[in-house]
Amino acid sequence: MPELMQSEMERPAVGSRTARVRIMHILHRLATGGTEKNVRKLLEGLDAGAFDQTVCTVVPEVELSVGKARVVTLARPPLKPGFLVPHFYRLFRRERPDVVHSRNWGTMEAVVAARLAGVPAVIHSEHGRDLQTMGRQPWRRRVFRRVCYRWADRVFAVSQELAEFYSAQLGIPVERLEVVPNGVNTAEFRPCPEWRIEFRRRLGVGPETLVVGAVSRLDPVKDHLTLLRAAELAVASGVDLCLVIVGDGVCRQALQRELADRPALAERARFIGEVSNVAEWLNSFDVFALPSLSEGMSNTLLEAMAVGVPPVATRVGGNSEVIEDGLSGVQFNPGDYQALAACLQKMASAPEWRLQLGENSRRRVAARFSLGRMMQAYSQMYNDVVMSTGRAEPALST
After folding, report:
1. Which residues, 6 or more positions from 187, have their beta carbon under 8 angstroms from its beta carbon?
2. How many domains does the chain have?
3. Are residues 28 and 171 in the same domain?
4. Domain containing 209: what range?
5. Distance between CA atoms of residues 188 and 125, nearest Å
6. How many CB atoms lie within 10 A of CB 55?
C-alpha cells in the first residue's frame, strides 16, 4: 500500500492561496468515537465560504471524503505506525495547509512535522483518555508532550478537568491550556413523542417499564460491566427494567458472555449495535447511564440531555461540568455498581422527579453546550490563530 493515499478530488496547487483558511484535521482514524464525531461536526458546521477543511488519518481509510471534505491517509499500520514525523512533513509540504490541528496522543507528532514544514499555525487538542493514559505517563511521553505543547500555537482540552490533568502531568500552569467544550445540535437531538412510542414498541416494553440505556463504543474504559451488575441488582429489588446498550466494540462478546451468566437480566437486555439514528433510540430511554472510568466531555451525554433524558453518570472527566448533581442528573463514583443500582431504583420509584431532571437537562445543554456555541468558538479560534502567526514565541513557552 502506498505511503500516502488520497482521493481523486482536486486539491490546491502547492503555494497557491485562497481567501479561505485551509485547515487540516489530524486523526488516528475515522472511527465512531467522540473525537471523530467532533471533527465531523466541524466539517458539516463551519462556514464553507471561510474554511477549506481536509482530514488526515494515520491508519488506512476506506472513506476518501466526508461530506464535501477530502480525506487523505498516511496508511500506516494500525498497531505499529512507526515514526510519523517524516510522513506528516511530506504531506504538509505538499498540501500547504494554513492550520494543522492534531488531536490526542496518537497524532501529536504532527505538531513537530508542521513546525518543520513551515505550517503557519499549529493547534493541538486533548479530547479524553483511555485506560492506558489515565495514570501518570512515562517520562519520555511527558517530555515529548511538553515540547509539542510549547511548539503549538494553541493547546486546548474539551473539559476543565482534562486541562487540569495535563497541567499536573506536565508541570505547567493550567491557565495555559484553554477549554473549548463540545456542543450538541438541540434541533436534531430533541424530545419526540412519536419516536418514543415507536422505539419502545420495538423494544416490546410497556409504559411502566424503566428503560435504562447506554450509548457508546463497547470499550473497557466505558465500564459496561458496572452497568450490568447495577441493572441486575435493580431487577432483583423488583424494578421493572429494560436495559438497552447501543454501540459496538472490542468488549461486545465479553459483555454478552457476562449477560448469559445473569439470566434474570439477560431476558431484559438488548444489544442494539452501532446505529445512525441515535436521537430516535435516546427518545425511548427513561434514564441514560454513563458508567465510564474516564471521559473528556461525552458527546452522547450531551445528546441524551438534549433529548430530555436524565443521566446517571460517574464523577469523572467533564461529566461534573455538564451535570448539576441532583438538578440535571445524578452522579456516582466509578465502579460503584451498588450506588448505580440505588440511583436506578430511585429513578423508577419517582417518575415526576425523573421527568423534572430531564427537563432541567435539556435546558442546561441548550444554554451551555449548544452546537452554535461550539462552532463560534472554533471559528474564532481558527481565525485568531491565523491572524497571530507573526508572534515570535510559542503560546506555551515557559
Report:
1. none
2. 2
3. yes
4. 193-368
5. 26
6. 25
